[in-house]
Specification:
Elements lengths: L3 H10 L4 E3 H9 L11 E9 L3 E8 L11 E4 L2 E5 L9 E7 L3 E3 L2 E2 H9 L4 E6 L4 E6 L6 E9 L6 E3 L22 E3 L22 E4 L2 E8 L10 E6 L9 E3 L6 E11 L3 H7 L7 E6 L5 E6 L1 H4 L7 E2 L11 H5 L5 E2 L3 E2 L9 H5 L5 E2 L4 E4 L2 E8 L3 H16 L12
Parallel strand pairs: 1-2, 12-19, 13-26
Antiparallel strand pairs: 2-18, 3-6, 3-11, 4-5, 4-9, 5-6, 7-8, 9-10, 11-16, 14-15, 14-18, 15-16, 17-18, 19-20, 21-24, 22-23, 25-26
């Protein structure tokens, strides 16, 4: 059995063995017999649509004495909740912004958070009792900017289908989930998800340092609706230091949602943790349920989603017939594709929506499917980015090896 201090000493002297979750799973699939003596740390991660994300911001908008108290606030048109501190007459507003708050059908809190981290100018409008105040601010102007999640790294998702003959608007679709049972929508990063790899809660809990959208943060405890069978986490981190590619907005037929990423390192102290790390996509059940009744109709596994060839989406300009309106660009939920520029990999979640929208089959990807009650249902929307999550795992591995991330000195700086 090892201790955290012993692992950190090995990191400092350059003898630590650190794997990303993808690297570790590759060893297991190749038949390697791994014990706690063979590995010191495994980095895990997840990235995707996570509704339970919000920000607490403190923003100077006017000179002291300009207004008495903010009653309503908008940031880039996204409605915010004034408070929790009123900051009367100081010209500073504190506000809470939900990642699912909407300025319109194509812009919400998730888009706002990415714009803030990218250093873009944010238009803040404050309504007080007797006046309206406007200001343009950037992240450098914020006295306080922290992102927190109420439900992150959800361990056990459900795939959804629609048994009705008409489309149903839902956050689990972009243009409405088609029926009856014509397509399936999925979430979750399967075998690299932090909580899938720590089923006993030996490594991840309140006080654990993590990466939230690439910024060093901390787990504050269990998230909302967390159970022993379906756990999730509450996490907080400073927005300074976050990386835009790991966050953003995601358009759905029920309004914009928020993309969030979490990276967690698992120190391997003994073989109990090795047992948890042996989990593979093909061993993780993924129930398939009706979107309206939530009745479970069948079950697949995350191998149906992620153990497919060509996980990333490829665009073939030569196959494009240049429709007057590009259906692929119109449906892209992150704004990652245009016919002129192609795919912006820093915005692409590889959701495959473009693949199914393009009438000329100008896109390729290894989409999966489920077999439910004797019929094959294609997976037409993936609301999690496995490749981005694997990139975050690599970032975390490099930070550990460079001593920029530690188990005993991590957390919010």
């Amino acid at each position: 059995m090892k201790t955290i201090n012993e692992i950190e000493e090995k990191i400092r002297n350059g003898s630590a063995v650190v794997y990303t979750a993808a690297e570790f799973k590759r060893l297991i699939r190749e038949g390697a017999e791994v014990t706690a003596a063979d590995v010191d740390v495994v980095t895990t991660g997840t990235c995707g649509v996570m509704s339970g994300t919000a920000a607490v911001l403190s923003v100077p908008v006017a000179k002291p004495g300009t207004f008495e108290r903010a009653e309503r606030i908008w940031a880039n048109g996204v409605p915010c909740m004034p408070g929790p501190c009123p900051n009367e007459r100081l010209g500073i507003v504190d506000m809470i912004v939900s990642g699912t708050a909407h300025a319109g059908a194509g812009y919400g809190g998730g888009h706002l958070f990415r714009d803030i981290v990218e250093g873009r100018g944010i238009e803040v409008v404050v309504e007080a009792a007797d006046r309206s105040v406007e200001a343009t601010v950037t992240l450098d102007d914020f006295a306080y900017a922290r992102l927190f999640t109420t439900r992150t790294a959800y361990k056990n998702y459900t795939a959804y289908v629609n048994r009705q003959p008409t489309r149903i608007k839902t956050i689990f679709s972009i243009e409405g989930l088609q029926g009856p049972c014509r397509e399936a929508s999925v979430s979750g990063c399967g075998e690299i998800n932090p909580l899938e790899n720590d089923p006993l809660g030996l490594a991840i809990g309140a006080g654990t340092p993590v990466l939230l959208n690439g910024s060093v943060g901390m787990v504050t405890g269990e998230g909302t609706r967390s159970t022993s069978e379906r756990p999730n986490l509450t996490v907080i981190a400073d927005m300074t230091g976050m990386q835009p590619r790991y966050m953003g907005g995601f358009k759905t037929s029920a309004g914009p949602e928020c993309i969030t990423s979490l990276g967690a390192a698992i120190p391997v102290l003994d073989d109990r943790q090795i047992a948890g790390l042996l989990v593979l996509d093909e061993g993780i059940p993924l129930p398939v349920a009706d979107i309206t009744t939530r009745t479970v109709l069948g079950e697949g596994t995350y191998a149906d989603v992620w153990q497919q060839p060509d996980r990333e989406v490829t665009y073939h300009p030569g196959w494009c017939e240049e429709c007057s309106t590009c259906a692929a660009a119109a449906v892209c939920p992150t704004g990652a594709f245009s016919r002129e520029a192609g795919i912006d990999r820093d915005r692409c979640l590889a959701c495959t929506a473009c693949l199914f929208a393009c009438p000329n089959d100008a896109f390729e990807a290894g989409e999966g499917s489920f077999r439910v009650r004797g019929r094959r249902i294609p997976i037409t929307l993936r609301q999690s980015g496995r490749t981005l999550a694997e990139d975050l795992c690599r970032d975390l591995k490099e930070m550990i090896l460079d001593s920029r991330f530690t188990f005993t000195g991590g957390g919010i700086r």
